Amino acid sequence: MEIGFLGLGIMGKAMAMNLLKHGFKVTVWNRTLSKCDELVEHGASMGETPAQVIKKCKYTIAMLSDPCAALSVVFDDKDGVLEQICEGKGYIDMSTVDAETSLKINQAITGKGGRFVEGPVSGSKKPAEDGQLIILAAGDKSLFDETVPAFDVLGKKSFYLGQVGNGAKMKLVVNMVMGSMMNAFSEGLVLADKSGLSSDTLLDILDLGAMTNPMFKGKGPSMNKSSYPPAFPLKHQQKDMRLALALGDENAVSMPVAAAANEAFKKARSMGLGDLDFSAVIEAVKFSRE
Amino acid sequence: MEIGFLGLGIMGKAMAMNLLKHGFKVTVWNRTLSKCDELVEHGASMGETPAQVIKKCKYTIAMLSDPCAALSVVFDDKDGVLEQICEGKGYIDMSTVDAETSLKINQAITGKGGRFVEGPVSGSKKPAEDGQLIILAAGDKSLFDETVPAFDVLGKKSFYLGQVGNGAKMKLVVNMVMGSMMNAFSEGLVLADKSGLSSDTLLDILDLGAMTNPMFKGKGPSMNKSSYPPAFPLKHQQKDMRLALALGDENAVSMPVAAAANEAFKKARSMGLGDLDFSAVIEAVKFSRE
Amino acid sequence: MEIGFLGLGIMGKAMAMNLLKHGFKVTVWNRTLSKCDELVEHGASMGETPAQVIKKCKYTIAMLSDPCAALSVVFDDKDGVLEQICEGKGYIDMSTVDAETSLKINQAITGKGGRFVEGPVSGSKKPAEDGQLIILAAGDKSLFDETVPAFDVLGKKSFYLGQVGNGAKMKLVVNMVMGSMMNAFSEGLVLADKSGLSSDTLLDILDLGAMTNPMFKGKGPSMNKSSYPPAFPLKHQQKDMRLALALGDENAVSMPVAAAANEAFKKARSMGLGDLDFSAVIEAVKFSRE
Amino acid sequence: MEIGFLGLGIMGKAMAMNLLKHGFKVTVWNRTLSKCDELVEHGASMGETPAQVIKKCKYTIAMLSDPCAALSVVFDDKDGVLEQICEGKGYIDMSTVDAETSLKINQAITGKGGRFVEGPVSGSKKPAEDGQLIILAAGDKSLFDETVPAFDVLGKKSFYLGQVGNGAKMKLVVNMVMGSMMNAFSEGLVLADKSGLSSDTLLDILDLGAMTNPMFKGKGPSMNKSSYPPAFPLKHQQKDMRLALALGDENAVSMPVAAAANEAFKKARSMGLGDLDFSAVIEAVKFSRE
In terms of domains, do C110 and C8 share one? Predict the structure, then answer.
């Protein structure tokens, strides 16, 4: 199976490499073409432009840094995906973009007769390297079905969620639960500490009970040391909380706990913590002038 | 090692049985004495009153239904623990009581020369039977150390948390985190559903990620079926949220997410859901007249 | 002083009439031209198109129903404001629009050499008729200064708030305070009632103290009768809360009370109360299944 | 009409003086007796103990500093109110106490055959001097009716609210609305400021609209100067929010806005602002590290 691959950032490179390792023929492209070299050494072909890649491959996956890059790769004059996309071809955008961007790309691709799937992922560098991503796919069902062999290599599980936009929405829901949980956890750690209890012991207790989860285990010890190396920056978490609340607004869902959590993240941003890990929200709970 | 055991409710009976099975000599008492029969068949002795049990045993554990029962067993004229407690003896109350009750009992016991440990547990019937409780102990350190062999049989882990009251406080902190997490989870499930996503698929996605935990796995499927068999009644969860917020009040800890979660539990109570499982708070999130 | 006036809805008609009464020469236009008749009877001239009105008058005020209408009056091919606006002319848009719409109109007008002021108002039908509006103006200062005689007729006070967009923003801030106050009031009324106190007596007590204000006095009695005739629809109030929270998001201002109030309005919307007065949010506080 | 008066603090002295001025015969007592001198100069008699005052007067009003003082005046051995209270006599406690204290005093007084009214007031020094207090009375209706002439002198309005405890509860409801309003106001002022608008102009705009009220007018200007001279200390306001939320808890009323406001006051307390005026909560909204 031949696959085009656009975008060789941290995530994209690891994903394309996995495809190669599992016997896929891969044609790669990256805005800075030199980033293609390593992949080519491992057997990949290289395209000069997105349009070239599309022309060559029946299926093309994109993994770009943000909505702006995702749009530009598709719509660029002469070089863009739209120049060559046509009936019979499939385009799978696995970048993390908002539902609106996804819908715009979908409309353009299908307008040319192509098929489109959005497939944002849950998981970062390590799961990408290990082929352990969770893929939240939506859009053209036949394309999804045909792409499953690639998804099986890239992730531990891929979900088909229906119409385009649902992948982006599901990611917001998941991140909202995560943001509220992080606040619940932070308040607990601070309450323990200020009440004369050990917040390290609280970690041990939580770890033994029904709430034990990898996030508490992974982040708790560094939070107790006021260390927040950015795995998922707080400002991005806050943005996702805001977008999830907006999704609730659209559908008339009242979510007071998420709203309170969002305001705590905003307070943390106002404290200059936006670029730290989102677990730094505990600093907003902790803060007191005394 | 000889141990007295006061209170043979669901929890107490399972715990006393575990002690017997592991070779402890156990003398039991229960307000309704007939409940002692099964234990006696398995080799336990029986005391006629709490005072008799205390007289006979160096160490006595109590597992009573509520603060009122815990106080009455200690303070009852003629028959109570206080009648016989004295230097050299230890009293371990594992009932779930507030810090104030615990302090009152502690004062009375130590006033007579006895030693006291509070040891509320995390976990319910099944963990009690399996000896898998988590024990949040506080009070006399020497008594705690001497009691460790019994704790090892009753629980998978026992924590020594310092002065009397800390066991009760730690339990509040843990339950507060649990209550806020349950709200985060509920809001996510409802948001998914109202946004046209499958809340069952959300469960699958959460289960694969960094937030996966036994509580979401255990309660999610029934919540999606609007079924809330009471493992931990909502009204008790709300009471613990309130007490945790009061603890925060005492120590000037602002906890806006827990406060929002508490109001959601109160809304659920006002909807008549207080006796259902605390996961029924999702009904307060779901509710709409349309 | 000659003034053009575009838009003769409930508000616009009352405002144009006031200008006439105070000796201004007024040229009116309305999409449905027949609505101009009454004004013409009182001495107004009529324009066939917005462009005609602009051509005739040095100053033109617009009072349109929503951002869409505001944009179309300016940008319409052939007939729109842009066809005739030019150096020396001033355009004052008093419609309630978002900052973005305002900035777009400003750019177009000034691009043609014209001057622009946004001037959203606080107050509805009655204050419009009585010339008692509050005008939140921003934009070209010289135009504002020249327009003051007209503002003095239309409102009891006009504020100059600086650059275009500030009028819209100030209105959001004011409406946010209003929405949170309405929730505070609603919670008080329900708490009184459920605690066995009279919510009518609470109104009397509030009326005598430092919190007495026309909104509580005007809406309290009907709220106590569960009557919510729509003066300001709940869905619009909720939209303004959302936009105010977004403004806070932009500027990293954490506003937990407004966020909680917004969620209460959303709950009320989910109960089907969006078209009632925003005071109907009390129904979301009141609601219980029992 | 002869009235006893116990407690000559700032409030009590002003109130007793008003009674004298309006022709009442007043017998005063104060723990520090020398504080009676000024009143005696104006024609009052003096009692050596509360018991003496009760013995002499058919009606006795108390205005004491806190629940502890209120209880001690009633229950003191030999000298307390209980020594002389009896059928035919009335005791009116206008101190600010919790419902529980009020109920305790009521039980003791009525147990001796006396009649009791609680009458906490809304308003501080100035209204006390001007006879412009608002009186929230509850308890024995016949005593209330007989005391109206005195209430008419002390306040601009007195309310009869039913059974003992209702006065205290109504005061909590009023103060809760006040605390939430203060948060709404604070968030608005900060949002204006951080959005590049003038918070002084916001005060002017609010003052002209439907939300205008003496509290915003009185406290706004000093809040904009970060000045918080304590008229009503923040820690007391926060205590009342907490007690109002507890009242809501008892009656299953969910109040998310008051809960968010309470957490903001707690944050302010943790910042060391408890002894400043409750308007200092704006500092918790404002706070950011940058």
Answer: yes
Is residue A217 among the annotated active site residues? no
Of the three residues C111, C129, C163, the one that is the final residue of a domain is C163
Q: Is A194 in the same domain as A155? A: no
pLDDT tens string A206-242: 999 999 999 999 999 999 999 999 888 999 999 999 9
Last residue within a domain, chosen from C163, C184, C206? C163
Residues B272 and B202 in one domain: yes
**Same domain, residue pair A13 and A141:** yes
| Cα separation, C109 vs A128, whole angstroms | 51
Q: Based on the domain organization, do C146 and C242 belong to the same domain?
A: no
> What is the CATH number for A149?
3.40.50.720
Question: Measured between alpha carbons, how far is B71 from B65 in angstroms, rounded to an integer?
Answer: 11
Q: Residue A260's closest chain D neighbor by CA?
A: D260
Task: Say how many CB pairs under 8 Å bridge A and B.
Answer: 214
pLDDT at A174: 96
- Containing H/E element for C116? strand C115-118
Q: Which of A183, A240, A245, A287 to mutate to test the interface with C (most CBs of C within 10 A)?
A: A245
Q: What is the DSSP string of A243-263?
A: HHHHHHHHTT---HHHHHHHH
pLDDT lower than 70: segments of chain C: 289-290
- Beta carbons of B81 and B132 less than 8 angstroms apart: no
Give me the phi and psi of B171, to 5 degrees please.
Answer: -65, -40
Contact: C272, B256; criterion CB under 8 Å: no
**D198 plus D275 within the same structural domain:** yes
Please state the domain count of chain C.
Answer: 2
Return d(Cα D179, Cα A38) in angstroms, integer: 63
Q: CATH code at D253?
A: 1.10.1040.10
The complex's ipTM works out to 0.92
- Find chain D residues with C-beta within 8 A of B266's C-beta: 248-249, 252-255
Longest dimension (CA), chain B: 67
Residues of chain C with C-beta less than 8 angstroms from the C-beta of A284: 254
* pLDDT tens-place string over residues B145-157: 999 999 999 999 9
Contact D290 A267 (CB under 8 A): no
> What does the pLDDT look like over D158-202, one tens digit per residue?
999 999 999 999 999 999 999 999 999 999 999 999 999 999 999
C5 to chain D nearest CA, in Å? 25
D266·B253 Cβ contact <8 A: yes
Q: Write out residues in chain A with pLDDT < 50, as ranges.
A: none
- The tens digit of pLDDT for each residue in B189-226 reads 999 999 999 999 999 999 999 999 999 999 999 999 99
- Residue B173 and residue B263 in one domain: yes
Catalytic residue from among A89, A169, A171, A235: A171
Within 8 A by CB and 6+ apart from A278, the residues are A179, A182, A232, A233, A234, A236, A237, A238, A265
- Contact between A223 and A189 under an 8 Å Cβ cutoff? The reply is yes
At CB < 8 Å, which residues of chain D contact A?
Answer: 256, 260, 267, 270-272, 287-290
Q: Counting beta carbons within 10 angstroms of the beta carbon of residue D17, is it exposed (0 to 12), middle (13 to 18) or buried (19 or more)?
A: buried
Give me the residue from D260, D272, D288 closest to A290, CB to CB.
D272
Tokens found for residue A99: 């539902």
By residue range, what is the domain housing residue A66? 2-163
Contacts of B264 in chain D (CB under 8 A): 254, 256
Q: What is the DSSP letter of D209?
A: S
How many whole angstroms separate alpha carbon D24 and alpha carbon D19? 5
D127 and D231 co-located in one domain: no
Helix, coil or strand: residue D213: coil
Catalytic residues of C: 171
Tokens 């009970």 sit at which residue? A209
D174 to chain C: which residues are within 8 Å by CB?
188, 202, 205-206, 209, 211
